[in-house]
Amino acid sequence: MNTGKEGVYYTDVNLELNKKITKQWTLNAMLMYQTYNRSVVELHEGLLRNGIGVVDVKYAVNSDVQMRAELQYLYSKTGEGQWLFGLYELSLFKQLSIYGQYMYNIGGTEEAAAKEKRDRHFYTVGATYSRNAHRLMLAYTKTREGYNCSGGVCRLVPAQEGVNLTYNFTW
């Protein structure tokens, strides 16, 4: 936890359960309580306090075909309120992944009510192909403006809708 004259920047408390149910089924569940200081991190006014629940289920048909589904719920009395998120992913031959995700803002706060005229439905449908050091991703997406964190790196992204094509090479 980092603190300074502005107080708490960010803190969270997690409870996580990882369970291999059978050779084919794996369950991961997490509960998190999070405090996030928007005035320090985003230069917006306010301190967010959120409760988050996540359930992730994986099913391995065989060594070449795997499926994963994830559900998330964020509860907050501040910020943009409550959110639902769902993801389905199909992995084929360890190289191809086809996925779809959907996020919906339930609302429930004054800030969310002020943004009521803005769309509250966000989604992505795409595929990723990886081979050796190459990774190619093609997706159609509608994303919301805000911070996007992936792999421990967070960045501010604009709202967008359209096709994304990404190529990565790692050596």
In short:
The protein has 2 helices and 13 strands.
Describe the protein in words:
- The chain is mainly beta.
- Helix content is 5%, strand content 69%.
- The protein is built from two helices and 13 strands.
- It has helices spanning 38-41, 110-114, and strands at 3-4, 7-8, 10-20, 25-37, 47-60, 65-76, 82-92, 96-107, 121-131, 134-143, 146-150, 153-157, 160-169.
- A hairpin with a 5-residue loop joins β6 and β7 (82-92).
- The two termini are 34 Å apart.
Please tell me what the overall shape is: globular
| Most strands sheet | 9 strands, antiparallel
H/I helix tally: 2
Largest sheet strand order: 3-4-5-6-7-8-9-10-13
Feature tags:
171 residues, mainly beta, 9-stranded antiparallel sheet, two-stranded antiparallel ribbon, globular, disordered N terminus
SSE diagram, text form:
Elements: E1 3-4, E2 7-8, E3 10-20, E4 25-37, H1 38-41, E5 47-60, E6 65-76, E7 82-92, E8 96-107, H2 110-114, E9 121-131, E10 134-143, E11 146-150, E12 153-157, E13 160-169
Antiparallel strand pairs: 1-2, 3-4, 4-5, 5-6, 6-7, 7-8, 8-9, 9-10, 10-13, 11-12
